[in-house]
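Backbone-to-sequence.
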């Protein structure tokens, strides 16, 4: 479960057994969780975050999209 970023208390990561899915990132903080697809950045799942938090997270995922994709491809060998 590689962590690829920690920012403002959020943990951005992916699971090592999810290489069969399109590139994405999970984000957890204080018992809440969400998942964003990468390329294009799209919310897949939200479990507990308020709309304003999703907006902040989406902005960060968009900002880091290229490095997240690089980390995904490096890990899964794509």
């Amino acid at each position: 479960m590689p962590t690829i970023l920690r920012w403002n208390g959020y943990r951005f990561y992916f699971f090592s057994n999810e290489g069969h899915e399109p590139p994405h990132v999970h984000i957890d903080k204080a018992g809440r969780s969400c998942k964003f697809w990468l390329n294009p950045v799209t919310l897949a799942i939200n479990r507990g975050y308020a709309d304003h938090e999703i907006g902040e997270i989406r902005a960060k995922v968009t900002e880091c999209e290229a490095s997240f994709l690089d980390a995904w491809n490096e890990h899964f060998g794509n």
